[in-house]
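FYI - complex with pyridoxal-5'-phosphate, inputs then prediction.
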Amino acid sequence: MTTATISGATISGHRGLQMDEPLIFELDSPGSSGVDLPAPPKTKAKTRLGAVPVRESVGLPGLSEPEVVRHYTRLSQKNYAIDAGFYPLGSCTMKHNPRLNEKMARLPGFADVHPLQPMTTIQGALELIDTLAGWLKALTGMKAVAMSPAAGAHGEMCGMMAIAAAHDHRGGPARKRVLVPESAHGTNPATAAALGMVVEAIPATADGRIDLAAFKAKLGFDVAAVMLTNPNTCGLFERDVRELADAVHQAGAFLYCDGANFNAIIGRVRVADLGVDAMHINLHKTFSTPHGGGGPGSGPVVFSQALAPFVPLPTIIHDDDGYRLVECQDEDEGTALAFGRMKAFHGQMGVFVRALAYTLSHGADGLHQASADAVLSANYVLAKLKGTLNAPFEGPCMHEALFDDKSLKDTGVTTLDIAKALIDEGFHPMTVYFPLVVHGAMLIEPTESESKRSIDQFIATMIGLAERAKEDAASFHAAPTLAPRRRLDETTAARKPILRWKTR
Ligand SMILES: *Cc1c(COP(=O)(O)O)cnc(C)c1O
């Protein structure tokens, strides 16, 4: 059977026990309701709202309870998740989130804690945040940590604001320039630009690492910071980071490290030893809870001695009186130079609980093992696919394997086609077209939590697709044919999203 007949419409529009699901507004059957309310008491007014006349329908759909339950259950089944299958999204560290974490996060003392509760009633929650902060400092060797940032990008902003505050405090020449490698995640230059800094790209060498000579040529006394990712987004360890850090410090600048790739080095490298001044940690990547967990992520930032005085509020202090949240600048509490406040309240409690449960259940030895297994999994993918796809850089990788589209040249099949075909094969696509330093990038991060069996299935699928690309390019262009929807116009969806059912 060809894919065309497979994708042919059924009588009902449903396919393989999956219902084609309209919007809830399209399911509207006026007058239907899931509740049976008593009739309102009779009033003299003409309408049920008293004197206020109803001018038009409020536009809420009418559905019975089973219709509502089915609608949302079906939508949930269309949601691909790490609990449903392999999720090789490079840079995102989509690892299994142990059920133990969920059990802990749902304990009422954590799940129901209110941000305005008196401090005496949330001692356990504050202790948990403080204990996790202690682990993050121990794992990185850093002096201080800001726990409140709500995402990696928010952490970057926090780190760069502390750097700006430190420069202000020192006085001296204005420092506006920020050096960022070409391979950096888009949030790095975006953060610097959002803070009014001027971003300059540092080129990469042929082996996918920062070009140290080009970097040194750009360094000067008007540079505020360098934003580096290590391991970098090509999945490679930046070997010259110590030399780079020394040069940065000699120029009076600070070294910011994007720590989203901490999964590759956790328990093995203390970033303080690399000369880093500030680094965010994506709790929602490295410490399970992959992307979500019922709310925003969590991107705590660890700081070196030099930046520790500028760490933002709130901060937790533990002394004879128990745990205390310090929310204002205060000489006696050591927070006089705090640059301000990143966020209301204390941070993302649910992700903190999961991260501490993850850390304690692994222990120091388990975290050490996790990074080793993550790197092993990625190198297994690299070794097995290297003969089929082109690996642009030499040698072993860290936690993610990078390929470009050279092997697809002249087939008429693109990286995007491979990604879409993977959907038909039951796999979430890998990260594509990032990092920008290689053409048609495919960035695959299996993480430590995938079994050899699932990685092997993925590898066999990739090899199969690469072979089919040479013989039957046409079959790729319609993919995905088995998903609920075909190819979407992603640009229009992003630029002109239609977020309302009917615009009035
Ligand atoms: C995910 C990621 C970020 C940003 O983290 P968010 O929590 O999505 O804001 C930054 N840098 C790298 C390398 C990342 O992978």
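The first helix runs from residue 3 to 6. The pocket of pyridoxal-5'-phosphate is lined by residues 91, 151-153, 185, 187, 229, 233, 258, 260-261, 282, 297, 299 (CB under 6 Å).
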